[in-house]
Amino acid sequence: MKKFFNEFKSFIAKGNVLDMAVGVIIGSAFGKIVSSLVNDILMPIIGVIIGGVDFTALSININNAKICYGSFIQSIVDFLIIAFCIFIMIKAVTGFKKKFSSEKEKAEEVKKDETVVLLEEIRDLLKNKQ
Question: Does the pLDDT value for residue 123 go beyond 80?
Fold first, then answer.
């Protein structure tokens, strides 16, 4: 049992798990912000544009069942906004990584080790003698 808890402890202490936990917490907070944006700002504006429709009130009654398709439409809009934001963030991070890696490669090309430079000079001198 002690071995099990030690393995669990080492699993929890890994950086990836902690990063993932932070990501989940921030993601849920971001989801609440996007939901508020959609429910409180965007959908009322869209409702006014298309004739004063309140999407939360859109539903169909079939016998005793109430199908709230307006809430479903709002969830779709939530999803699309979140997906778009994630797309933009990933695109920005990818661009930053490419820029950073290309700058790093240029710096590595410019800065050669002294022994490499010395060996290249010796090689060039030997070529010139022949």
Answer: yes
